[in-house]
Every structure is written in C-alpha cells, then in structure tokens.
C-alpha cells in the first residue's frame, strides 16, 4: 500500500505538468521574464553603478610616485666670481624621486551632474529594453490564438465524428436487416475517415504552433497543454499607456540632464596639491647634494572663454530634444491609427458572430429534419453528409470569428498599452 501511494505521489507532478492550462497573461509574464534580452536590465544597472563609483572616486586624493634620473649637456654657471664664496655648479647627472598628491576641493558640482546623467541614461536604457520586450506580446498573441483555434476546431471535429458514428451504427443496423443499401454505410465510413484525416492534420498544425509558443515563453509545452480562452475587455476611453511614451520622456530627461553637465564643464576647479621628494639637487639648486624636500599649495583652473562651445553644445542638445518630440508625435499618430483599425476589426467580428448564430440555428433545424429523413430512409447518406458539413462549416466559421475577435481585442490592448 505504501509503495502504491509513493508511485501516485511521484507521478502526480508529471501529470499536472502534462495537463497544464495556460492563460494569455501567464504567457506574457513568462515571455518577458525568460527572454534573453530581459537579463540586460540588471546588467545595465550593474554597469551604471560601476561607472558612478568611478565618478565618485574623483573626490578622493590622488597619489603618484615619480622617479627620474637625467644627464644633461650643460648646467647653470655664474660668469663672475663672488669674493669669499665658492659657487659650485650643479652636476650634469641629476636624480629625483617624488610622491605627488592632489585633492579636488571644488569643481562646480561636475561629479554630481555626471552622476545624475548616468542615472538618467540608465532609466532610458532600461525603458528601451521594456519597449523591446513589449513587442513579444504581439508574437505571443499570434501563436497563442493559432493554438486556440486548432484546439477549438479539434473539439468541433470530435463532436462531428460522434454524430457520424451514431449515423453509421444506424446504417449498419439498416444494412443488416435490409432496410438500407451497403453504399449508404460505405459513404458514412468514408466521411468518417476523412474527418480522422482532418483531425490528424489539425493535431500536427496545433503541435507546430505550440512549439513556436514554447520557444517564445521558454516553457516545454506538451500536447496535452490546454490554452485558456480569454475573456478580454476593451476600454477605448482609457488613455494609451504604451512603454514608448515613457521612453520618450526619459530620453528628454536624459538630454536635459546632459545640458547641466555641459554647463558645469566651464565652472572653476580648485585643487590642493602637495609634493614630497628626495633628489640631487633638491629645491635649492645651489646645494649640489642629495636633499629631501616638500611643497604644498593650491591650484585654480577656470576656462573663462571657450569661443561659444558651451552654447553650441546646448543648442545641439535642444535640437535632439526636438527630434525626440517629433518621434513621439509620429508614434502617437501611428498608434491612434492602429487603434482605429483594431476597433474596426472588433466591430466587424462582433457583427459576423451575430450572423453566425442565425446561420447555425437554421442549419441545426435543417440537419434535424435531414437526420429524421435519413433514419426513415427518405434520403441518402450523401444528402445527410452535405447538410452535416454545412452545419459544421458554419460552426467552424463561428469559432474562427470568435478567435479572431479575441485576437483583435488582445491586439487592441497591446496597442493601447494596458
């Protein structure tokens, strides 16, 4: 008994996975989560953090160790002799080793501005990835609803086969007791084989579409996977929330931040410096011996005139902002056109579905009468099959229009960005 329970618990997860049901929203989440491009979001953040750390380290003191040995062809000599003193000229071979330190005291907020720019660049780059990942939804839609269509067509074919099988049993009995001709039975068998062939083709097509969907969402979907038929609501009154709109705003923010960096470039920079060394000669050129020495001080650098470079750079940034604005206007215009087209498709399929209901109702009444006539021997199997095909063609058309309506609604939601 324990062994039996162990086997049941062991195979339960496999059965659950094999018979899993997926929704459209789950496919969206899986696609965006597992698509290789999604990894760049974290990588870009790591890269930006590293670059910001490099910028922040500009505030730390810099230490340089320098050493040199030189030999020169001539040195300073005094042309006159000073009484009671002897001035020895420096050696032609000279040696020096120094430790130099510099400390940034003030740079007009240039580091802070560049840090802010890196943050703005990161936000824009990550949003660009979000835009690229968003396009996955349209590809998922196409494959998802293709699988769904084959799934629903399979159900209709199985239902049709049940009806044909019931008529075939009746024909078998009729032939057995001489109430029907063998040709009637053979015709029903041939039609049943034709349905099995169609079912086989649908299964292959469904499997192909399912594999494509598996690649997009990075999940191994078995043939027993069932896709949920989504009930999608559209809301034309809601404003568009496409990720591209946020990207345009972030790009403008990035450009505006770059203007701050340009402005800071010409601010005065104040540095503190110090030098400690040992050499021959030292700072006293008249002392021809090895000496230690040091020096400390302040250094100010201020570019007070740059020939209008800053102004030109800012003007270039303003032009880039105008380009982004025109790109946004173009996107909004095209997006509105896509919305109108999607709304028209939705209205079209809803109208067609209303007609499908009327057609199916009439076809069912005709088939009901035809079935009774076949059972009473008033018509042939060929006539019955014709009406049965008419009914199921109408039902397949109805199912096709349902899937097309759901796809149109799903695409509309993607176009609107919600």
UniProtKB/TrEMBL annotation:
Keyword Cell cycle (UniProt): no
UniProt xrefs under Pfam families: OEP (PF02321)
SUPFAM superfamilies registered for this protein in UniProt: Outer membrane efflux proteins (OEP)
Domain of life: Bacteria
Compartments it resides in: Cell outer membrane
Region forming the signal peptide: 1-18
Record-linked InterPro entries: OMP_efflux (IPR003423), TolC-like (IPR051906)
Main location: membrane
Similarity-based family: Belongs to the outer membrane factor (OMF) (TC 1.B.17) family.
Protein name: TolC family protein
UniProt source species: Aequorivita antarctica
